[in-house]
Design brief:
Elements (H helix, E strand, L loop, with lengths): L5 H19 L1 H4 L31 E2 L2 E3 L22 E7 L9 E6 L6 H16 L12 E3 L7 E6 L9 E6 L4 E6 L4 H15 L2
Antiparallel strand pairs: 1-2, 2-3, 3-4, 4-8, 5-6, 6-7, 7-8
Amino acid sequence: MPIRGPRTLLATIALATTLTLTACDPAAEAEAPPAASATVPAPASSSPAGSGKHTLAEAATAGGLTKATGAGAVSDVPVDPGEMRDGMHLVVADYNRAGQTSGRRILFVGVDSVPEDPNKRREHLWRGLIDYALQNGSTGTPTTAKPYEPGPFGGSLECLSLPESANATDVICGWSDTTTAAVALFPRTTPADAARLFAAMRADLEH
């Protein structure tokens, strides 16, 4: 009989003990599930409450602003909304601030049921609105925009100022979510104030 060293003897005793305990434990006889079937907790959704399919509709008042009507109201589509398909809605309107009777209004352009990535549609609208604001002399770019609180419908809301405009305090804001994209031009304001107002308008224009 060969003579075993201390390490070999200890390993033999440990193995025998393990086999004995396994034989006495009924639970150990059950087949263990394969490692691949282990449930991994899904990451928390990044979509905020209120995400899903939404539609746009004109509103007589939006965020406390009054929709302009009559001869002075916008009557055409000043910004190319991109390809419009069946089931999509285009909303174009300008709004007066409280007590406003003259001067430039807040211009809103939005679409819903967007078939492609709504962020791309927002960028398309955004560039068109920058061209409109700068009279087709655009040097601005959406990449310079700053994010702001989007409101209860989630998605993203961003604003940028137009210092290269003749009206150096003009601000453009845009939002996008799962199915809608919209932009607005805010004359003579700050990005932070425009963002708060745009989120309030969104609550009345998006459903």
